[in-house]
Amino acid sequence: MYITNIESVPGRNIVEHFGLVSGSTVRAKHVGRDIMAGLKNVFGGELKGYTELLTESREEAIDRMKAQAVSLGANAIVNVRFSTSSVASGAAELYVYGTAVTVS
Amino acid sequence: MGDLLVLIGMIAMGYFVGSYLERRHYASIRERESAFVHLPATTLKKPIHPEAVTESYLVHGSVVISLDYFKRMVAGFRNIFGGNLGTYETLLDRARREAILRMKVDAKDANEILNLRIETSSISKSDRKGKIGSIEVYAYGTAIKF
To answer: ipTM exceeding 0.90?
Structure first.
């Protein structure tokens, strides 16, 4: 499965379009991670727990998008975009979308 | 009185620990950026020689970073008078450069990264004890090999 965020897969030709595929996850924060985040707010710096959480959630969203593309019979997804929105206090939606295509 | 001492203590800790961490982070960013000088990240949509490309894949990196107490206080005062928020500027600059570096680590032995996109979102949570203000920066692009 080729995934790119440009309009083609370089070196290959797109032979068929399947339309939009997307995947999303909504994740809430873990209580233990929140306590550490409260402490980090005094000193500043990276919140590793949140970084990991968001990375995992994005991987999950990408997997869902890939599964959708596979079920359509595509072998690549081009022009992938990510978007993040906070839907409620302490929860974030991670959304990824792209165009499923077949490349030669 | 006790509350005031705690507040002053938190501001002082935020200032000293926060600025120490920031200096250390900048030193590490500069070091890693010079190590990745051979892997340019561009916002171009097409490779210059598309026929030479053998492999292409999506790469990404992200970081969630938080303000320290002192910076938040300074920002609070600045909100009254207006002007540049220098403390937030360095925070965002560090976060973006860190996210790009992580993306480059993800790209491993690629030759170039195309169509770099950076997305910034604020992750905040308010409760009785106050507000947790943090920022996520997410960088992604297409890595290509010649």
So the answer is: no
